[in-house]
Target: Methylated-DNA-[protein]-cysteine S-methyltransferase
Amino acid sequence: MKQTSSSSLFSAIVEASFGAIGIRTEDRVVRELVYLPASFHGKDAIDPVAQKAAVQVERYLSDPDFHFDLPLAPIGTPFQQKVWAAIGEIPRGKVLTYGDIARRVQSAPRAVGQACGANWFPLVIPCHRVTAATGLGGFSHHDDETGFHVGVKRWLLAHEKVAGY
Model:
């Protein structure tokens, strides 16, 4: 893998069909996973946690049934953590709507959407499995139907063999 100056923010970068996934680590935990456009190139891990995360991301990209086991930074509000826990229960190949998750956590769909967009650990917390009642919905605080992030969501759902994607 090669490193570019724009990749210095990341502890590792894993190339993917849709672009890349940046991995940030700090204090022996994963701090963030970021969807990156194809202008980012792979970067070798700079520490053992980044190496573990990179290997697990690569395994997921080749096998959508892979289950992550990473040390994640303890971040997010109690509400976000409640939403993320509910999202983590959605099995591969299935989707729930923002409303479905809202009913499970006794909240509103818009609040669930905000918590999804605030997810620091996409793939590990599979918020791509949450859709709007009327279709795909947004992704990572982006809702442009032809934009990069919604395209990543489509790719992930197709990768997980969700019907219609």
